[in-house]
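Closing statement on the NAP sub-project.
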Amino acid sequence: MRMSRYRDALVVVTGAGSGIGRQICLQLGRQGARVVLAGRRTARLQVVREEMARFGGSAVVAPCDVTDARQVLQWAESILKTAGAADVLINNAGRGAYGRFEQVSVEDHGAVIDTNLKGIIHTTHAMLPAMLERGEGQLVYVSSVLGQLPAPAHAVYGATKFAVNAFAESLRHELYGRGIDIVVAAPGLVDSEFAVASGRPAARFAKVPTKSATAAAADVVRAMEQRQHLAVNDRLSTAAIRLRRHAPRLFGWLYRQAFARLRDG
Ligand SMILES: NC(=O)c1ccc[n+]([C@@H]2O[C@H](COP(=O)([O-])OP(=O)(O)OC[C@H]3O[C@@H](n4cnc5c(N)ncnc54)[C@H](OP(=O)(O)O)[C@@H]3O)[C@@H](O)[C@H]2O)c1
């Protein structure tokens, strides 16, 4: 039997109450990790804790709004006091704001930046020092393929995910040799509450290949186990990223055709 790398590890997961985050918690919980469940909706986190208790998984609920820097520092201190230093921080909380740029409010665009970019800055500030003190830890960032494929109707969301990738890569260089592992996982389209929360019309995307949250979480866990720097786990996105790099004009034309078909479909 394969010994899990995460047995008894203290793993903090943001956005743990739904979608990919919930599945990451269940999968790492089954491997014997001690999971800290974070998110804003306490009731949702309690449901995940109960689900984990059913298979003997260890989880504590630690609600937190990642957009609030002060709250995040207090949250991290309380985790440190009650459960100890985190071995792994999984930055999964995120949201979008789907729509033509001029039709999305400046408040919604601000909330995307506050959650996806400021959120990871806040949590990393709060948890990295204790990892550096111990000389080990893993920082995981759930980005998106849109962090390498700028898309219509997702300008601000894509910008935040490009920023997530750049942030993680910068830290990887900066922290080299200090025992901190940095992993970025970049899912494609995933079936979760994300579409509704972001105002993305699910019906229009019905024909686009979509993964279950379970499969997307398995990709994240695999990327963590293999310490992948930037994990893209679907062939179409990998091909599109390559085409954008090597034949940007052709890529642009094909990409616009594809999105126009989605708009009209
Ligand atoms: N679904 C996709 O197609 C897709 C594709 C590529 C990448 N992703 C990325 O995958 C990650 C997870 O998304 P998902 O698909 O699993 O969607 P989801 O089910 O909507 O999960 C997002 C989670 O983030 C939490 N969250 C949102 N704002 C927060 C805040 N301010 N503070 C703390 N937690 C917050 C939400 O919980 P509360 O509301 O309770 O706080 C929710 O549990 C996101 O980073 C997303 O950008 C998703």
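The CA atoms of residues 36 and 211 lie 25 Å apart. With this model delivered, the sub-project is considered complete and its resources will be redirected to Aim 3.
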